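Support request, please re-run this one:
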Amino acid sequence: MVLIIYDITDDNLRNKVANTLLAYGLTRVQKSAFLGPLTKERLKDLKARLNRMIQGQRANIQFYPLCPHCCYRRDEIGVPTVPRYPVKEEAIIIV
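Re-run finished. Output below.
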């Protein structure tokens, strides 16, 4: 699982980045935040693609890998935005 957030001032570029993240199967959880499962290979490909997109632009994209335990413990209030991703029980370690 990876959480991706960005700060992009240009509307067209911001829309291109958002559409790319959606095309990779990520779920929008906030206006500038996306969450979803990606393999290491897909994440590497996505980073390269986004890097080419923002080259020379005033933009920042951050990637936060999340362990299954962290995703399982995610909580939210208000209107739900993200489905509960299935987590294998053996991947959960309660500390």
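The first helix runs from residue 11 to 23. The CA atoms of residues 7 and 60 lie 5 Å apart.
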